[in-house]
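Checked the freezer inventory, then went back to the computational side. Two predictions to log before the end of the day. The first one is the construct we discussed on Monday; recording sequence and tokens without edits.
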Amino acid sequence: MKTTTQLKFDKLIKEGFHKILKPRGFKKKNRNFYKAVNDIGYVLNIQSSKYNTKDHIEFTINNGIFSPAYWNGQYNYQGKANPPDFPSEPNCALRKRIGDLTEGTDIWYEITPETDEVELILEMISGVKNHILPFFDAIDSQTALLQYLESEDVEQKLIGFVHVRFIMYAELNMPDKALKAYEHLIADNTKNKLYQDHLTRIAQRYKLI
């Protein structure tokens, strides 16, 4: 039998997420939501803390933009013909937690037997409508995703996205840009021989070098 806290968590997922996302075309699987749009997809994941108990639950909200091109180049180890029907958030090309979209710091929410779940549900609805959905809506294609990853702000703050661009450029048949990204990564990782070797194998796979 579920505890009061667990029942509140279930209600929050239903009222704060499912009822908002389902009419907008999102499919639900456990605590994950997914919607395919043009040649990309939107992923929302409600992540529970590994330290949760039945009477104390902490969670955060992970959001991602799924790119079939990035998935195929980075995660398609078995050579499958098609990307997954319901991708996971860790496999997304662009990942942002709710805190990245609001305060700029990591945010975890808390549920206990004393929590006012109505107030927390309203906070979730506000976060989805005012921050998460606008984040998704601003990137509606792989072209828009690449434009975001190429933006100056991202280049300065999130240099790791050069790797994402490298894979996407190679997959989308942009060899000149892919080679430039490869050279950038090699130059920035001179002390990481294993990663350099990994990059070189990828470059060779796409006949860039």
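The second is the one RB wanted added to the comparison set:
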Amino acid sequence: MEFFNEIELKKIDEIKSHYPESKAALLPVLWMVQEKYGWISEDSMKKVGDLLNIPYEHILGVVTFYTMYNKKPVGKIHLQICTNVSCMLRGGYELFKYVSDKLGIKNKEVTADGMFSVEEVECLGSCATAPMLQVNNQNFYENLSQEKVDKLIDSLHSEQKVNNT
């Protein structure tokens, strides 16, 4: 199986064209890898390094520095719960514990069926509407309570079941 297809390689060339050197394209290319595969593996870091002519050690440093990159597989539904100051003051830690207990997993773990993973994260930029969580790096849910989270998880689980049939 090819790592990047022809369309993706053209997109990478387009990204690289915006910068004086290919190293500057590393973050968006890593994001492409994560969007495609769900996480950044050691093998994928090496392939990106070959593609951009960047040493593996540099890429490893970038991937381990930025929390937005998953260093291991995540669930089909990845819940990121903010526990930074505003969310903490409005129940972020309690919400994180509630979701973890409900799903039976700890921080950065995946449920046995591979459906859900949960991660405690720093600021997601919704301080005025805390506590909040993000689903799959794209959908934000704010002003959360345990009841709202129960409904959200049930809804996400139902949607995923429908999409898999």
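For RB: The first helix runs from residue 6 to 16. Residues 75 and 114 are 5 Å apart (CA to CA). Let me know if you want it refolded.
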